[in-house]
Structures are given as C-alpha cells and as structure tokens.
Amino acid sequence: MKRTSRDLGFEAEIFAANLLKEKGLTLVEQNVNFRVGELDLIMMDGEYLVFVEVRRRKADRFGGALGSITPTKQKRLTRAALAYLQQRRLMDKIPCRFDLVAVLDKGDQLEAEWIKNIF
Predict the structure, then answer these.
(1) At 34, is the pLDDT very low, low, confident or very high (cuts 50, 70, 90)?
(2) Rounded to an integer, what distance in angstroms lies between the CA atom of residue 20 and that of residue 101?
C-alpha cells in the first residue's frame, strides 16, 4: 500500500521529535493547528520554547528544506506561534525560537539536520 504525503510527513515528524529528544529537548505538543497556520513540533530546550518546522525531502535541490522556508511560510509560522502563546497565556513569559529539522529521505533510511534559529 502506497503511503500518502501525510503519512510521510507524520513519519518525518516522529523521526525529528526522537532526534531532538536524544539531544535533550522535551516534546510539549505535536501538530498544533490554528486558522493562521500549523506548528509541527513544540519542544522545550532548557528555558526556550522551540517551534520546530519539519521538512522532508528526497533531494537537496532547489535550496533544500531550508530554502522552502519562504517569507510567506515564516509569516504563517510566526502567526501560529503567536496564537499558541496567546492561547496558553505565555506571551512575554518565555523565550522562544524557531528551529528546522530537515529530514532527507534516503530510501531505506532517514537522515536529519537540525538547524537552530532559522529566522
């Protein structure tokens, strides 16, 4: 049975969450949706609340995963993060950052690169 892009994305998010847990981060929430956008992973890294965008690619062409974080995508992520902070009453109470986990699909295995402070 062929896996859907949704299945592949979810698999990449689990892979990324496990990688970041190994690096000492703690998973807070996954796949949080707001009208203004979606947050793939929300994690704690020490005192920082980290909004993690997960991108899965088969190749690193066309700028790769980092190149796919366009100004429009940045705006969507920022709006979703602000909605999250407002809903949880965390505005001005916790330092935050945006990270990227670029998951490269090598066919039989996944590889990942974690990039902190993508914007």
Answers:
(1) very high
(2) 9
* CATH number for the domain harbouring residue 34: 3.40.1350.10
Amino acid at 55: R
For residue 61, the one-letter residue type is R
Look at residues 56, 52, 66 and name the one whose alpha carbon lies nearest to residue 21. Answer: 52
Query: CB–CB of 45/64 below 8 Å?
Result: no
Query: How confident is the model over 15-27, as pLDDT tens digits?
Result: 999 999 999 999 9
DSSP reduced 3-state for 89:
coil
pLDDT-based confidence at residue 61 (cuts at 50, 70, 90): low
